[in-house]
Amino acid sequence: MPPAPASAVTFRLATRDDLPRVVALIADDAVAAARTGSFGPAHVAGFEAIEASPNDELVVAELDGEVVGVMQLTFVPGISRNGATRLLVEAVRVDAALRGQGLGRALMTYAHERGRERGCVLAQLTSDKQREDAHRFYRSLGYAQSHEGFKLPL
Amino acid sequence: MPPAPASAVTFRLATRDDLPRVVALIADDAVAAARTGSFGPAHVAGFEAIEASPNDELVVAELDGEVVGVMQLTFVPGISRNGATRLLVEAVRVDAALRGQGLGRALMTYAHERGRERGCVLAQLTSDKQREDAHRFYRSLGYAQSHEGFKLPL
Description:
The structure is a homodimer. Chain A is an alpha+beta fold. In chain A, 34% of the residues lie in helices and 34% in strands. A five-stranded mixed sheet of chain A has the order 1-2-3-4-5, with helices on both faces. The longest helix of chain A has 15 residues, at 103-117.
């Protein structure tokens, strides 16, 4: 066994050059594969919109020079919960070959640090009802499984 | 019975002057009352952050010159789902005295129109597990109750 990689992982904003790898990570998943598609212009347009937004960050986790994880952070200002800014976390993925070694936990810890830096007092995310392992993971981080999540194609 | 108000309702961006009413609407709710607080500087700061964001809109519903509903829209760019932009809907409220008359449906229809105008292909929201009436309402609009919603104080 190599040493646990979670302590060696680093985080940075994704660049345009990371995109094929980021799309592959997001698609390497039984739930998301069909709807993510293979890398193409729509993903580039999505990346450019994230880069143009002051409230969105696409973050990659790097280990030994390789991108091994990804997540998107959105900082959402608001009125409810006494004017709280929320941290919305989407598209959390860790390389399938490296799961169970603490990388997901390191990724979420970094998400929460970035949220606090941006003044967020609440983190929120949704997870497909099929992903029971992910639900256990989020509960283990202290998340309350308090809400139902709804989606509608427009 | 007065005529159904849903056909007469209009929508516009909230202004600073609407805030006390908006906070009262958000707080007039068994689930949210304790955590919303009464109108104060934190809500003003939240409003100013929404106004400063290119991807957030605080929308009010008006009927006969009165604010009778509110919701917040966030347009979230992304990589997953083939580079989809998502419409996030938060803090949906209708005046308690006017519920059951189609105002909530009109509000959500407007939300979806605004989302499409901004290029969103998916609407998403979460609803506290205690709000079973709300869950029925969202399902009646075509939403799939497909996800678990998680929250963590930061």
